[in-house]
Write a structure and sequence with these properties.
41 strands; 30% strand; 2 domains; TIM Barrel; globular; alpha+beta; disordered N terminus; Beta-galactosidase, Chain A, domain 5; 12 helices
């Protein structure tokens, strides 16, 4: 690869407004001459892509007690020479940014030196890029959200603000990709970190005021050079482009294909080619995660579920994966310890053997790499004494002040009380691997082992006594990758497929090819879900329409499952203890869920198409439409954590390409009435196809 310094050409000049100006292939970037902040970005078409930012960057230092100090670029004196920008603070802190322009993009490479004695550099957030809220924003959280509702409680990432509900969205984790794109009328701006080590970042946005939304790739700085300076071996990219979310995802996918782990096609288990349908159900409780005791239900003993397996296998003409919840013999939600299964190994073994004899599969949900100290569900489960006797607190994740807590589903009124395990600690890895080996050795086919590890990632550890730097950095991603590769490559666990909650984030995709996708938050909070992760990664992974957590009362199931098909997902049904489909997890089992039989028929038809076209819908890549498809607008109502409607169309479409370069499209009417689809071909021909209720047609590649 050519040197950035030697290969890139930039043009530096002073505009009439005294801005610092860079040009490349018709694109012009202007930075403030007063502070170096991004002021404007325009392409050859003249359309302005950004609005002026108030700051060039912000950064945060921690003192010896973990207390933060926030610095803004306006706190520094600023100078520039050519493409090198420099800021110096009175305390000696020195920030530099090398800006270069080439091949239609602008690259920003920061470095920070002169960190005051006794202080730690926690994170850096720059360059700061701002857009107008009349843009749509592609946000790579929850598999992809097109944000049109810019109402968001933003705060910088840190130990106490680690999960989406509190903001922000951590990459690699709940944010699956390290870029964002904003666009209006086909004029877009693409902002990314070109970071092959996948340093932890908050991929997030902040509504500054009614006219300004700031994009952030807040980056954690735990990877310092030997002289104590931060000189990342990657750059941030800013570029104008034409298109919307698909074109932006193509840019990111082209970069992903250059990464070593994506150089070859994945090894998939043979059962994926049969497109099994998951039956998701608990063997304890009534479909809700909380509540004391959680007694066994009618699906325990495990063999009690065989009638449902046989029924749906016949109705769907499909292999079945029985995907169990609340099966752990310790207590539900008791990571890392799950074995032996509830009721003992012999009871589960009979079910396993009966499934395998039919050609069906056994899967289980687990609860990730947390540590359950006390179960809020099963009062008798407690590891408090062991925790004290073995001084296990020393292995748990810590905050900047040495604080210890857990993040997800933690509380007396939730599922558990506990902590998060640090994956850079050998003791934690040993315990996690030992538990996973028990599952695989038993003959379980699939484990959603990394449920609650959103996107397959983990959170932020600042422990000063662990064998890692006291600030999060790329070392944390290396630790998770080492664990996943050990599990996937081990002879003891290699036969079992691993997955996570949500689509796996970029570095974890090769290890987690089958996971539970849940687009519901995109519906409820910000705009509409779009299959960004599927567009980028489908040729390396194929996920399943997950347990629908969040849809507790009502949703148009025909739209949801049809959109899952067009996202390339395999299918699931969430069952109550009578073997009936319910809306989602954890909906009440007596909530009405109309037209169950018709939904099963739809899934059977769509799954038959999946099995007919594995080169596209299992191995293929999603592509932009090769014909223009138009149908009438429609709305979908939903009721769950929040209620509302989402805008859609009567006929859903998707387009695919296989390894041979062949292309195909699909169009589906998800409604109970006939719908017209207008198809405009590249040669200008126009045709109208009338689709019957719940009909799917194929579109030939052009």
């Amino acid at each position: 690869m050519k040197s950035l310094i030697g290969a890139v050409a930039f043009v530096f000049a002073f505009a009439a407004s005294a801005a610092i100006e860079f040009k490349t292939e018709g694109a012009v970037l202007r930075l403030s001459d007063a502070c170096g902040a991004v002021e404007s970005l325009a392409a050859r078409d003249g359309a302005q892509r950004v609005v002026p930012a108030a700051e060039a960057f912000t950064l945060q230092l921690l003192d010896g007690k973990g207390e933060p100090s926030l610095f803004k670029s306006s706190d520094f004196s600023f100078s520039h020479e050519g493409g090198r920008l420099a800021w110096r603070h009175a305390n000696g802190l020195a920030v530099q940014m090398e800006v270069t322009a080439s091949d239609g993009e602008f690259r920003f490479r920061p470095s920070i030196a002169g960190i005051p004695a006794g202080m730690l550099l926690e994170w850096f957030d720059g360059p700061q890029v701002c857009i107008s809220p009349d843009n749509a924003l592609f946000w790579p959280e929850w598999d992809g959200i097109e944000v049109t509702k810019f109402a968001h409680r933003y705060r910088p990432a840190g130990y106490r603000a680690r999960f989406s509900g509190n903001s922000p969205s951590l990459y690699p984790g709940l944010a699956q990709m390290q870029f964002m794109a904003a666009y209006r009328d086909g004029h877009g701006v693409y902002f990314s970190a070109v970071d092959g080590r996948h340093t932890p970042k908050a991929v997030d946005w902040e509504e500054v005021d009614a006219r300004t939304v700031r994009l952030t790739l807040q980056t954690f700085c735990g990877d310092l050079d030997v002289d104590g300076a931060w000189r990342p071996q990657f750059h941030y990219s800013l570029r104008p482009y034409m298109g919307g979310w698909m074109e932006a995802c193509e840019i990111y996918r082209d970069w992903v294909r250059t990464l070593p782990d994506f150089a070859k096609r994945p090894k998939r288990p043979k059962w994926m080619y049969d497109s099994p349908v998951n039956l998701i159900y608990p063997v304890r409780g009534d479909g809700r995660d909380c509540g004391r005791g959680m007694k066994p239900n009618r699906l325990f003993p495990y063999m009690n579920a065989m009638p449902a397996v046989e029924k749906y296998g016949k109705l769907l003409d499909s292999r079945i994966m029985a995907l169990l919840m609340h099966w752990e013999g310790t207590a539900p939600w008791a990571p890392p310890y799950v074995w032996p299964p509830y009721g003992g190994e012999e009871a589960l073994a009979r079910f396993r053997d009966a499934l395998h004899a039919r050609g069906d599969l056994l899967g289980v949900y687990c609860s990730g790499t947390a540590w359950t100290q006390i179960s809020s569900i099963v009062p008798r489960y407690s590891l408090e004494q062991r925790f004290e006797d073995e001084h296990l607190g020393r292995h748990m994740m810590r905050g900047p002040k040495g604080e210890i807590t857990a993040n997800i589903c933690n509380g007396h009124d939730a599922q558990k009380l506990g902590y998060d395990m640090c994956l850079a600690e050998d003791w934690c890895i040993g315990e996690i691997v030992a538990e996973a080996e028990k599952l695989s050795r038993f003959g379980i086919d699939y484990s959603q082992f990394f449920d609650q590890n959103m996107g397959g990632g983990w959170l932020l550890c600042y422990a000063k006594h662990h064998r890692h730097p006291p600030i999060p950095g790329a070392w944390a991603v290396d630790a998770m990758l080492a664990l996943q590769r050990r599990l996937v490559g081990s002879g003891k666990t290699g036969g079992m497929v691993f997955g996570c909650e949500q689509t796996a984030a970029t570095p974890y995709v090769p290890n987690l090819p089958y996971s539970d996708v849940r687009p519901m938050p995109g519906l409820m909070f910000y705009g509409r879900p779009v299959p960004g992760s599927a567009f980028v990664f489908h040729e390396w992974m194929c996920n399943f329409t997950g347990n629908m957590c969040g849809m507790t009362k009502r949703m148009d199931a025909f739209w949801r499952w049809t959109s899952g098909f067009h996202n390339g997902d395999m299918f699931s049904l969430v069952l109550n203890d009578r073997g009936e489909a319910v809306c989602g997890w954890p909906s009440l089992w007596d909530e009405p869920f109309p037209e169950r039989e018709r939904l099963v028929q739809l899934i059977g038809r769509l799954n038959a198409i999946r099995k007919k076209h594995p080169s596209f819908l299992l191995e293929g890549r999603m592509i932009r439409p090769f014909v223009k498809c138009e149908s009438r607008p429609a709305k979908v109502e939903f009721e769950g954590w929040r209620s509302g409607t989402v805008a859609t169309v009567e006929v859903l479409t998707s387009f695919w390409e296989n390894a041979k370069g062949e292309r195909i499209g699909f169009a589906s009417n998800w409604r109970s009435d006939s719908s017209d689809l207008k198809i405009t071909h590249k040669d200008g021909r126009v045709e109208t196809r009338r689709l019957a209720p719940l009909e799917t047609i194929e579109l030939k590649g052009e």
